[in-house]
Amino acid sequence: MYYNGYYVEKNLKEALLIYERCMETMTEEAASVVAGPVLLRLGNMHLNGEGTKKDPRMALTCYQSAERYLYAMVVDDGNYMYKKSLKGAIEGQEKARAELANMMDDREWEFDRK
Length: 114
Description:
Helix content: over 70%
Structural class: mainly alpha
Radius of gyration: 16 Å
Number of strands: 0
């Protein structure tokens, strides 16, 4: 609700805090149902700098974990309504990797040639 501003004033920092707290306190049983979508949202927030500074490396980590959970939800459990989320986690990884590659390309590399 805070992420989209539904019924409350939109507050991306509060949304991020809630998603992070959710992951920290989540039980194993709940993780099989909730972790994938929450990690996907965290990945999007870190990739786009929503409620936090932009961090493609953290986004990549979140997307990779989201893919693992969403894959289990879609393939193992047959919960096909999360197919689009699984695709989003995979595409998010590609975007995060591209941003990381751009960051590396922007740096001047010096090697010690002793």
